[in-house]
Specification:
Layout: H1 4-39, H2 42-62, H3 70-105, H4 109-140, H5 142-163, H6 166-189, H7 196-218, H8 230-257, H9 259-262, H10 266-286
Length: about 300
């Protein structure tokens, strides 16, 4: 029979595991955030965002309703969103810069000009996002965050860790993922394949895969052996669905800017948007996560 002191020791050991894992992520977030504010290096932005996402993942396991960790969770969430806006612009600019160089190398000056215009437009968007990040991040990190973090670690963590089992949280995420996958399969088998609704469902499935991947990584210390391969498994799913989503977002970004704003001819615009649209559909049909039926009327994007 387990004695009370033994149970108490196990509880302390469990909470120390959580504390060590979370403190490492917290230090990383603070360090990368500090560096990100100075130079907006894309890797610093990326790592600050990744560490904030892992902290959010662990906080969600410990306190699903965010009742005991509301301020701390909100702080990391706001930081993650603002870092994300800069990161998304970095990725789009990098991808379109590669395309521009390829177009120039192929002698396609008109497409290269279009891509240059998109890049310049996105640099303005990134500049605004960086300005907001620089203003917000000091309040979401540094001493302001420390004031929320210290009491959480000292008194808030142990009672939460004692009640929570990361394996249960992982199983719940698996069930949610499978339900979303089933919905996606139904949509992509029918006449709604390649519709906006189907792409949104696929986006939700990608987010569910990302949650599983981050949980498998961040909570590895608290998970049973059977879950240890989940990170690689769901990363592959996330990558496949992410490729589709990225290309779709880039096409929608282009459409939202508009041809006239970029001062591009109709033929060049139509040719490039058609190419991007075809890439979305190719990535969609090549994915191994959700089988896709051939649809007669793709609805992604539109000419303007």
């Amino acid at each position: 029979m387990t004695t009370e002191p033994q149970a108490k020791d196990r509880q302390l050991s469990k909470s120390r595991q959580w504390e060590q894992a979370m403190h490492k992520l917290y230090i990383n977030f603070q360090d990368y955030s500090k560096d990100a504010r100075k130079g907006f290096n894309d890797e610093d932005i990326h790592q600050a965002r990744v560490n904030s996402r892992k902290l959010l993942t662990l906080l969600s396991i410990l306190d699903p309703g965010h009742t005991a960790t509301a301020e701390l969770y909100t702080s990391f969430k706001q930081a993650q969103k603002k870092l994300g806006r800069v990161r998304d612009a970095d990725v789009l600019i990098g991808s379109f810069e590669d395309r521009r160089k390829a177009a120039e190398a192929a002698g396609d000056k008109k497409t290269a000009k279009l891509l240059k215009a998109v890049i310049e437009h996105q640099k303005d968007t990134r500049k605004a996002a960086r300005k907001k990040l620089k203003k917000a991040l000091p309040k979401l990190s540094g001493h302001a965050l420390e004031a929320l973090w210290t009491p959480f670690i000292k008194t808030g963590l142990e009672p939460l860790a004692a009640k929570k089992d990361a394996n249960v949280a992982m199983r719940e995420l698996e069930v949610a993922f499978e339900q979303k996958k089933k919905s996606c399969k139904t949509l992509f088998k029918g006449p709604a394949a390649e519709s906006q609704e189907a792409f949104e469902a696929l986006h939700e499935l990608r987010i569910a895969a990302k949650e599983l991947r981050y949980t498998a990584n961040a909570a590895a210390f608290a998970l049973n052996q059977k879950f240890h391969a989940h990170e690689a498994f769901y990363k592959d799913i996330q990558d496949q669905l992410g490729l589709i989503n990225d290309k779709r977002v880039w096409l929608e970004t282009l459409q939202s800017i508009g041809r006239e704003e970029l001062d591009v001819g109709k033929k060049v615009w139509a040719a490039f948007t058609d190419t991007l649209r075809a890439e979305v559909l190719e990535a969609l049909h090549q994915n191994e996560v959700v089988p896709v039926a051939d649809a007669k009327a793709p609805e992604i994007g539109h000419h303007s």
